[in-house]
Amino acid sequence: MVLLFQFNSYQGSVYFTTANAISGKVYEWNSELENFFSLTKNNEQLTQRNLYLERQVQVMSEQLTKLTRDSSYLKNNQLALLQDYHLIPAKVITNSIDKKDNYITIDKGTADGVHRDMGVACGNGVVGVVYMSSMHYSIVLPVLHSQSNISVTIAKRGYYGYLQWRGGSSTLADVNDIPRHAHFRLGDAIVTSGYSSIFPPGLLVGQALHVFNSSDGLSYRVQVKLSTDFGNLRDVCVIDDTPMRERVELMRAAQDSIKVKSGK
User: Fold this and answer.
1) Exposed (0-12), middle (13-18) or buried (19+): which is 163, by Cβ within 10 Å?
2) Nearest Cα to Cα of residue 179 among 149, 220, 212
3) Please, is 128 exposed, middle or buried when counting C-beta atoms within 10 Å of its C-beta (0-12, 13-18, 19+)?
């Protein structure tokens, strides 16, 4: 066989062509296999990157607004604020969207730095808040929960309200307590206000879809089309902001102190 393929050009060319075709196919299969197993890591990186870019766009938009009003905006480098947020990637293990009180379980816990009252987001927007954590797992109270109450604002309008889910569709929620004098348009972005001490300001929540009068007629109720697809939620990020967590703990300590004093 060696003599045949080594000293006969035709047979040799056929052999090497076939060998190259076979080896090329093997390499192709190997590459596809490696790409398949690397998809999980790529998805985690894309989720973090999307969340970072979304926040960056919001910050740059705010800077542009300041530029038109105040020439000293360069002193307020808000991009530096992003360095305060450490994102902990996690995967959704269990999820429900058809109950009155839905919960999400993720595969990260206290051993990974996840604690109660940390915000959870994905590449498309806000997901919810960590409700409790064990060593390696955490329960998230999502937007699709009757007790969810996230402070939000209408982007670039300055009007604030609270995002709440009334049940039903997993793509819709409501922002309550928007003042009657508020001026905004359908399609305006709804983002986190930063007043909840859980989420940084500017994270996307959804878009204003419809406007209704509140039950008492003193304010508006804005129906929001949520940006997060809760029915297809796989990769999320837990927002670890140590200064923000310290503020939450300080507020709790102050509330406990008030209760003790009032009890006396």
Assistant:
1) buried
2) 220
3) buried
**Residue 202: closest CA among 52, 49, 46:** 52
CA distance 94 to 104: 6
Residue 238 φ then ψ, to 5°: -90, 130
209, 186 in Cβ contact below 8 A? yes
Cα distances (Å, whole numbers) of residue 141 to 51, 135, 191: 19, 18, 18
Digit-coded pLDDT (tens) for 90-146: 999 999 999 889 999 999 999 999 989 899 988 788 999 999 999 899 999 999 999
- Whether the model clears a pTM of 0.90, i.e. scores above it, the answer is no
Contact 139, 105 (CB under 8 A): yes
Largest CA distance in the chain: 104
Alpha-carbon gap, residue 191 to 3, rounded angstroms: 75
What is the rounded distance in angstroms from the CA atom of residue 35 to the CA atom of residue 3?
A: 40
Which residues are bridge partners to 140 per DSSP? 104, 130
Among the listed residues 129, 123, 151, 82, the one whose alpha carbon sits nearest the alpha carbon of residue 229: 123
Dist. CA 32–CA 36, nearest whole Å: 6
User: 207 exposed, middle or buried (CB, 10 Å; 0-12, 13-18, 19+)?
Assistant: middle
